[in-house]
Structure formats: C-alpha cells, structure tokens
Amino acid sequence: MATKRTMSDLQLLENCRIAIDNLQKETDFAIKMAEFGYDKDAVQEGKALYDKARTSYDDHIRHKDLLKKKVYYFKEAKS
Fold this sequence. Notes:
Helix content is 81%, strand content 0%. It is mainly α.
C-alpha cells in the first residue's frame, strides 16, 4: 500500500538544504551529529548528493515548462 506524500519534492529539497547548512554552520550541532556518524565527510557527501538532486529537479522543471510551451504552440498552430 502506498503512503500519502506529506510534502512536495521542492519542500523536501529545501529541508535538506537547511539541514546541511545547519550542519556546516553550527559547530555544536555538527559535533553532536558526528557522534551519530555524520561527520564532516558525511556532510560533504550529503551536500554533493543534494546539489545533484537539486540540479536534476531544476532540469526536470525546465523541461516540463518547455514541453508545456511546445504543446501550447502546437495547439495554437493547429487551430
């Protein structure tokens, strides 16, 4: 059974960005998270994954918008 989505992809990406920023800026938080295995290397790996996911998301949105425009112009030309 599928679970109901509670947030959009963009909201999830934003939450990830905030978490990574907090880990990079707040030393007390970073020290505590390092105790759980989220050290500087893990944070950098997460940042790289976030950057890749954000780029992919942005590319998808641009592609979707382009397709919408093409469909609109096609319909206009056809009528």
